[in-house]
Design brief:
With 359 residues, this protein is mainly β. The protein has 3 domains: 33-120, Immunoglobulins (Immunoglobulin-like, Sandwich); 147-230, Immunoglobulin-like, CATH 2.60.40.10; 255-357, Immunoglobulin-like. Helix content is 4%, strand content 41%. The chain has 1 helix and 26 strands. It has one helix at 2-16; strands spanning 33-37, 48-53, 62-71, 74-79, 86-88, 96-105, 117-120, 147-148, 157-160, 170-179, 182-189, 195-198, 206-215, 227-230, 255-263, 267-276, 282-283, 286-290, 297-302, 305-309, 312-316, 323-324, 329-337, 348-350, 353-354, 356-357. Strands 19-23-16-15-26 form a 5-stranded mixed sheet, with no helix packed on it. A hairpin with an 8-residue loop joins strand 8 and strand 9 (157-160). The longest helix has 15 residues, at 2-16.
């Protein structure tokens, strides 16, 4: 009897013992690839067709895709097809639109975004040419030459790019960072200084950015080529209460100055380096040079106290970079303006002594 009861109890225990929990699926599908234009199967105007290579997933199934279109306020989801291709309608015939696609699996994981594709809204069959749409409908050109390292004294990611052009005029730039699941708008930049800095990131990690130009009518350019940017620690900031040295030390050893600049219609950005090539420290320094053209002028600067009188420009140290050790290099720079000519200075002095110009 006891044996029978024991067997029954064991059977019941086996029935009610829970099975081991299955691990949650946290792996996203692969990034959609191979985006290309597919002719819309309709004679209705204002459509684009997009084909792509299907994504794969460790679970074996991709639940569907989300298609995002670029607008003047950011990327918006336009459709959620279950497979390639997709047709996006409701567009203005003859205008260009930029898209990207992400894949979703059955657990809700979202892939990294596809590459961008820019297509012109058209029709599947020949139709009469429509009347031109009134107003400004031409987008700016795609921003070019997104480059890392032009503002590396800032903490986080910092980068610059070349100006876009527009038949009326570019009014600003929108900056997007790639994330798992799409492109996130992280800021904007004006037209005078085409540069962007984002803090609060992991130092030493690369982040991918794209820049979009925008005009006053809300037309947006194709996104720039996605570019990886390194998040840097940045240069140290001055102490809240720096202790001034009792008196300047006017001596300076040999020095080398680097001068690199980028210019646009009436503006410029300049990045400089000053190296102490001597054997003794340089303390309380003053770097001076003359602009070659009378129309060149300093506007704002960093890592020094800047001033200008006529063509003569002076950069004096701030508290935290007052001393340049032998063999050490400090970095400084400024934004400026010009009236058409923007030649680079050819001679520099540090504490009154001539410096070698870095080639």
């Amino acid at each position: 009897m006891r044996l029978r009861l024991s067997l029954i109890a064991g059977a019941l225990l086996a029935i009610i013992t829970p099975l081991p929990a299955l691990a949650a699926d946290t792996t996203p599908p692969s990034r959609p690839g191979g985006l290309m234009s597919c002719p819309p199967p309709s004679s209705q105007g204002g459509m684009v067709g997009i084909c792509w290579t299907p994504s794969t997933d460790d679970s074996g199934s991709v639940a569907g895709y989300d298609v995002y279109r670029l607008t003047s306020t950011g990327f918006v989801k336009t459709s959620s097809p279950t497979s390639s291709p997709t047709i996006v309608g409701g567009l203005v015939l003859g205008r260009s639109y930029s898209f990207y696609i992400v894949a979703r699996d059955l657990s809700g994981n979202v892939s990294a975004p596809s590459s961008f594709i820019t297509l012109t809204a058209t029709t599947g069959m020949q139709t009469p040419t429509p009347s031109p749409e009134p107003g400004d409908t031409r987008p700016p050109t795609q921003p070019q030459n997104v480059r890392d390292g032009c503002l590396w004294d800032f903490p986080g990611t910092a980068f610059c790019w070349d100006a876009s052009t527009d038949d009326v005029g570019v009014v600003g730039y929108d900056v997007y960072r790639e994330t798992i699941g799409g492109w996130l708008k992280v800021g904007t930049a004006g037209t005078q200084y085409r540069m962007f800095n984002e803090g609060g990131l992991v130092t030493g990690q690369y982040y991918t950015y794209a820049v979009v130009a925008r005009d006053a009518a809300g037309n947006v350019s194709p996104p720039s080529t996605p570019t990886p940017i390194l998040a840097r620690q940045g240069l140290p900031t001055p102490s809240p209460s720096p202790s001034p040295s009792p008196s300047p030390t006017p001596t300076a050893g040999p020095c080398e100055v680097g001068y690199d600049s980028a210019m646009w219609t009436t503006g410029m950005a300049v990045w400089m380096s000053v190296k102490n090539t001597g054997t003794t420290p340089v303390s309380i320094w003053s770097l001076e040079f003359d602009f070659p053209d009378a129309g060149q002028r300093f506007v704002s600067g960093h890592n020094a106290n800047w001033s200008q009188s006529g063509r003569h420009v002076t950069a004096r140290n701030v508290a935290w970079n007052a001393q340049i050790a032998p063999g050490a290099t400090i970095n400084l720079g400024f934004n400026g303006a010009h009236t058409g000519l923007n030649p680079e200075p050819t001679a520099f002095t540090l504490n009154g002594m001539s410096c070698v110009v870095k080639p």
